[in-house]
Amino acid sequence: MPSSALCACLSGGSSVASTHHHRRRASSSSSSSTSSSSSLYLNNSATTNYTGGSGRSIINRRNRKNNNNNINRINNNEKTRGLKVCAIGGENNANPLLRSIDDPNFADLSDRLKLDNVRQSLIRQEDSIIFALIERSQYKVNDKIYKTDSIDVPCYDAKTGVRSSMLEFMLREREQMDGKIRRYTSPDEHAFYPESLPPLVIPPMNFGEVLHECALKININDRIKEMYVDNIVPGMCESGDDNNYGSAGLCDVNCLQLISRRIHYGKFVAEAKFRAQPEEYSDLIRKQDGNGLMQLLTNQAVEDRVVARVTNKAAFYGQDINEEVPDASKVLTNPESQKYKVAPEIIANLYFKWIMPMTKDVQVEYLLQRLD
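^ that's the sequence the OP posted. Answer follows.
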């Protein structure tokens, strides 16, 4: 067992090995687009390997032996209660009580992933992203959060031994929790460190076949994180350091997960466009004409409306609302008379310059493989 973090799992029942195989396949297929570096997480005297089986791990043999002894001892004590304790991170640590993903009782009964609702979903995601960016803007850049070996977090690169950035540590920690409750089994969610996802603790859901299976291979979270740190944060936050690393880091994690979901939602947009014009798209796909696909899927009028809508939303969400209902016409036509937490045009520009183009990159990457 490569991990010393322990969890109690009920024994007996059927397995979700097929689900873990599906998720591991998605993780491995996206590894070329995501970070290949492996990290170790140190929790007091224990050591948790985040590598998920890949990369060279720096694990103390004594700790590993003690960990295995502890697992055996706890298992012996729990036999009478029907419990089995296992180490997180192992290859076969699926909760045996979780049922198959094909069980109709675990089908997604909402309509949020239906192609007919793509536009409404994108509009709702705008709201979440704008609020998250406004929250992050209240803190200074605090670039120590993004630098390796800068803040004493218990997370290290498994190959070099260099301490990871606080942002990487917080993202990995968040994904350990989210991964257990099946967040990354949903086709619209993408982990920043898919190779390190933990076993599920609740049954996976059946989301149906909405996208082509090539969608599993597409994960550009490395580009998204780089874009966010290098462009979005300094573009909306005051330069300098205010020591609020924890608060700013939590905002960063929230922003990154929301922006990642919005950008990767381009797969759903691309699928909807493909079904609306199958012949036009198929011809370009067979030619592997990426530029032609980009031109075909681009609708400048729609993009202009999105930017205008984001600007208006940022104007409303970014002001202090009191008991008086604000006059919409004054807010939108006299922005100089309003006080905003962050200027609406800044958020709109970030959306137009970074989020929307990367969404189209995902669309093209998906369409190029759509006929595979």
